[in-house]
């Protein structure tokens, strides 16, 4: 059997060729978050740590010190929100559930929702107080309600973070209050935000609420990009002396969703301006291109000793790539398969891969699978195929 490469123009017309030695490409940067780093267009930032990801194709467009441990400050509340959303989805809480306010929560300093001592507050209000107003007091009420104490909650959050693939994160509290044992990386924050958006779309709406009034006090959402008419709909700001000014933000345009994490900026104004500049650059300089949809037939691959001579192949999920717009004319897509594929073949069996290349693009590989079953041929069919091979050889 030969390694057969069929050159495709990804649904734009195709022709056949034979080649070998296709190099592997792509890198896994977290559980469920695989990306190919693209640096075709250049940009820099004054942020100490940063990462910009196109979630449509899970492509890293830009990164700077993305694996460096940092103080995430109130961006840590994305993890607290994730834990609360998970508890609601699992039936442990509802939005109408009420949780008591302890003296510890009431006395908590920093940004506040201004909870009342010994009051019982609805989870819905606490979520708004935490996400919109960045209330440290709301965080502690939620943490104590879920785990009994903030310390126990932090331990549970760290364990859950590991399960989500956050390899360089450790939580000492629920708020992001400065602690040497409380840290994350920009990459981990991006992965966490991506999981929250995709795992809890019904709750992500909290992140776009612009203001919330509680206890007679109206406070605006601290995410500056919500007010800039640039399609940003989340997630969370952060600031401590140790971490500087930070922001985890996401927005969607024309079906593309970008996710940005920046930290270590010197001021609120630089946080707003630098975040806007990086997101606009990502939307302007790059585009996502859908190559194949789940279930769409890509090609017919030859079958050896099967009831039919070929099997249609497809991709197990929608396949798209993100690259610099200037690189798109040079994009090439190749279907690589060891053909003919021996029968029997089950629907969903991996029978090859797509290799996607372009100038300035490091490459991406996507598995291709059989779109239907191909049973093994009967005795007569196998005998005919063997005779044909003896007479004509491998004609591929």
TrEMBL record:
GO terms for molecular function: carboxypeptidase activity. InterPro entries: Beta-lactam/transpept-like, Peptidase_S11, Peptidase_S11_C, Peptidase_S11_C_sf, Peptidase_S11_N. Gene3D superfamilies: D-Ala-D-Ala carboxypeptidase, C-terminal domain, DD-peptidase/beta-lactamase superfamily. Residues 286-376 form the Peptidase S11 D-Ala-D-Ala carboxypeptidase A C-terminal domain. Keywords: Carboxypeptidase, Cell shape, Cell wall biogenesis/degradation, Hydrolase, Peptidoglycan synthesis, Protease, Signal. Its EC number is 3.4.16.4. Residues 1-19 form the signal peptide. Belongs to the peptidase S11 family. This is serine-type D-Ala-D-Ala carboxypeptidase. It comes from Azospirillum endophyticum.
């Amino acid at each position: 059997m030969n390694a057969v490469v069929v050159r495709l123009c990804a649904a734009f017309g195709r022709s056949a060729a034979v080649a070998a030695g296709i190099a592997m490409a792509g890198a896994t940067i977290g559980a469920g978050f695989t990306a190919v780093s693209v640096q075709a267009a250049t940009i820099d930032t004054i942020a100490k740590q940063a990462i910009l990801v196109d979630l449509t194709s899970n492509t890293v467009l830009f990164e700077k010190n993305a694996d460096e441990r940092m103080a995430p400050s109130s961006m840590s509340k994305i993890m607290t929100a994730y834990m609360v959303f998970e508890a609601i989805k699992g039936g442990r809480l509802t939005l109408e559930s009420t949780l008591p306010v302890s003296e510890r929560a009431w006395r908590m300093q920093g940004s506040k929702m201004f909870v009342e001592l010994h009051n019982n507050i609805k989870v819905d209000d606490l979520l708004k107080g935490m996400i919109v107003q960045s209330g440290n007091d709301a965080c502690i009420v939620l943490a104590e309600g879920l785990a009994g104490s903030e310390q126990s909650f932090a331990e549970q959050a760290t364990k859950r973070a590991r399960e989500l693939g956050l390899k360089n994160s450790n939580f000492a509290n629920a708020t992001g209050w400065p602690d040497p044992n409380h840290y994350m990386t920009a990459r981990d924050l991006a992965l966490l935000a991506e999981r929250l958006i995709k795992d809890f779309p019904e709750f992500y709406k909290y992140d776009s609420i612009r203001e919330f009034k509680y206890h007679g006090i109206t406070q605006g959402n601290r995410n500056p990009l919500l007010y800039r008419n640039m399609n940003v709909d989340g997630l969370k700001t952060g600031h401590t002396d140790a971490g500087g000014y930070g922001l985890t933000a996401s927005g969607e345009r024309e079906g593309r969703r970008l996710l940005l994490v920046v930290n270590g900026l010197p001021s609120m104004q630089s946080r707003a301006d630098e975040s806007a500049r990086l997101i606009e650059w990502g939307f302007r300089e790059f585009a996502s291109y859908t190559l194949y949809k789940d279930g769409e037939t890509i090609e017919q691959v030859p079958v050896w000793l099967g009831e039919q001579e070929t099997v249609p192949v497809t991709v197990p999920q929608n396949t798209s790539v993100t690259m610099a717009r200037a690189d798109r004319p040079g994009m090439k897509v190749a279907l690589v398969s060891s053909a003919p594929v021996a029968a029997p073949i089950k629907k969903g069996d991996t029978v090859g891969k797509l290799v996607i290349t372009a100038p300035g693009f490091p490459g991406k590989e996507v598995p291709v699978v059989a779109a239907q079953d191909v049973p093994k041929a009967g005795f007569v069919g196998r005998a005919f195929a063997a005779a044909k091979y003896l007479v004509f050889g491998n004609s591929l």
